[in-house]
Design a protein that fits this description.
The protein starts with 7 loop residues before the first strand and ends with a helix. It is about 45% helix and about 15% strand. The protein is an alpha/beta fold. The structure holds pseudouridine-5'-monophosphate and manganese (II) ion.
Length: about 300
């Protein structure tokens, strides 16, 4: 028997939102512990939570603390995640370890989707998702995020995938697994730092009401699994494509030469890109997460209207 209540721990704010039937937006924590440096990581987390509150929903940042899946974190817990070098990056395979060993765990997109679904939250906002790495035909490096999207019913609002990945193969993988890729405000699938990847999304749906109707229809049909709602970085904060391409190539070569493997690959590339752009990539990263929070908040509110119908 699953005793989920043994594992889930809701914050007071999230508990109150559940009782009142308010829209709730899940947020991941690997972006805090492994995706950005301190103190910008904690500032970003706080500001994103506030954008969600200002939009009329309640934020639920998810992390593993003291043997519990914490859904909604206190300011002190956000600070802890942002300052603990030993916080573990937790994906699907790591959840039983970090919970049973009572370690501090920051959840990836995959693990956050699992925890959000357990907590009854259908909308999750992040920056970028993992995908098929370049050279995956020999390294087999395909993020567990993609397999999670194939099976766990949570909508993920993101700014697409970074060009550190093979974007074309990532989209092929998602197609094979029946994961729909929606784009907001444009036909193209965005590439995180830039608005266009050169690939099209499957469906363009500009309004939260249309996105919610799409997602609700998928799940009503019994088609389990996630939906990607890809939202391009605001034009004013996008990075020049040539610059990010050159830096990405350099970071990838360094990872290769340094023998960086497994779960270290993505954090290594993120931090090298930040260094090589003198921090400008970090400003873009923060801007796009905030933009995603606005889209995700509207979507979470629209989802409630659809489900209540
Ligand atoms: N991509 C980003 N920023 C991030 C991540 C990915 O642009 O912070 C994080 C997310 O938590 C994502 C994880 O789920 O990295 C994917 O890691 P991997 O490639 O090892 O599956
Ligand atoms: Mn990987």
């Amino acid at each position: 028997m699953t005793q989920l209540q043994n594992f889930l721990l809701f914050s007071q704010e999230v508990l109150a939102a559940r009782a009142a039937g308010k829209a709730i937006v899940a947020l991941e924590s690997t972006i805090i512990s492994h995706g950005m440096p301190y103190p910008q990581n904690v500032e970003m987390a706080r500001e994103v939570e506030q954008i969600i509150r200002d939009g009329g929903a309640v934020p639920a940042t998810i992390a593993i603390i003291d043997g519990k899946i914490c859904v909604g974190l206190s300011p002190e817990q956000l600070e802890l995640l942002g300052t603990s070098p030993d916080a573990m990056k937790v994906s699907r395979r790591d959840l039983p370890f970090v919970l049973s060993q009572r370690k501090l765990g920051a959840t990836t997109v995959a693990a956050t989707m699992i925890c959000a679904e357990l907590a009854g939250i259908t909308v999750f906002v992040t920056g970028g998702i993992g995908g098929v790495h370049r050279g995956a035909e020999t390294s087999f490096d395909i993020s567990a995020d993609l397999q999670e999207l194939a099976q766990t019913s949570v909508a993920v609002v993101c700014a697409g995938v970074k060009s550190i990945l093979d974007i074309g193969l990532t989209l092929e993988y998602l197609e094979t697994h029946g994961v729909p890729v929606i784009s907001v405000g444009q036909e193209g699938f965005p590439a995180f730092f830039t608005r266009e990847s050169g690939f099209k999304a499957d469906f363009r749906l500009d309004t939260a009401a249309e996105q919610a109707a799409f997602i609700d229809t998928k799940w009503q049909l019994g088609l389990k699994g996630g939906v990607i709602v890809s939202n391009p970085v605001p034009a004013a904060q996008a990075m020049p494509k040539e610059e990010i391409d050159a830096i990405t190539t350099q970071a990838l070569q360094e990872a290769d030469a340094g023998g960086v493997k497994g779960k270290q690959v993505t954090p290594f590339l993120l931090s090298r890109i930040k260094q090589l752009t003198d921090g400008r990539s970090l400003a873009t990263n923060i801007a796009l997460v905030k933009h995603n929070a606005q889209v995700g908040t509207a979507l979470a509110i629209a989802m409630r209207a659809v489900v209540a119908r």
